[in-house]
Amino acid sequence: MRIVICEDNALLRAGLGRLVSDEGHEVVASLPDAVELQTKVAETGPDLVLLDVRLPPTFTDEGVRAAMALRDENPGLPILVLSQYVEERYATELIARSKGALGYLLKDRVADVAEFLDSIEQVAEGGTVLDPEVVGQLLGRRSRDSQLDALTERERTVLGLMAEGKSNAAIASQLYISEGSVEKHISQVFQKLGLGAETGGNRRVLAVLAYLGVEIDESGGAR
């Protein structure tokens, strides 16, 4: 996998580069800010962009704005955003502008190397991986939704784990049920949320967006 890293902290930037390189991935660009990010992405054609939410010069929302600009130019480009702590407004904006291939993780998660590398793989493959703390905060502000109210407690639990980027196998292991049972629960979730096979986009991603209260337009995209 070809990866572009954009992180102002030199030690973390080097550490991330070493981490993904040791896993067999190629770092095609390593940047301290977003000034040349779009140019480097255009030149290298990466499979994933890994960037910080807060970047120079103001360390406020440069990373978020850079991610949105990349999304506008390359709608299918997988982006994994790292943040020191949950920035709810930024997370909501990014999720609302994405139809998939998005990760939003707290930097503490990098300490769990295996889980972090798995998140990279999932996002690169078009999935959505959200930090459990991000999911928790967004759910805390989500208004009630009649479709979600129709889900059983177990179906909501499965959908919540999907929002965290868990695979069917991981969900089955955590809930002590079979993968077949997980698949049945997910099928029911899709049905109750009106996500038929003909729905545009990745149904798994769209279900997560609905769960987090992000509106889905008629084409199956987020708005």
Labels describing this entry:
single chain, 223 residues, alpha/beta, Rossmann fold, Arc Repressor Mutant, subunit A, 2 domains, six-stranded parallel beta sheet, 11 helices, 49% helix, globular, Sig_transdc_resp-reg_receiver, DNA binding
Could you please describe the fold and organization of this structure?
This protein is an alpha/beta fold. The chain has two domains: 2-135, Rossmann fold (3-Layer(aba) Sandwich); 142-211, Orthogonal Bundle (Arc Repressor Mutant, subunit A), CATH 1.10.10. Helices cover 49% and strands 13% of the residues. The chain contains eleven helices and six strands. It has helices at residues 10-22, 37-44, 62-73, 88-96, 113-124, 132-141, 146-149, 153-163, 168-175, 179-192, 203-211; strands at 2-6, 26-31, 48-52, 79-83, 102-106, 128-130. Strands 2-1-3-4-5-6 form a six-stranded parallel β-sheet, with helices on both faces. Helix 1 (10-22) links the parallel strand 1 and strand 2. It is globular. The two termini are 30 Å apart. The model is unreliable at 216-223 (pLDDT under 50).
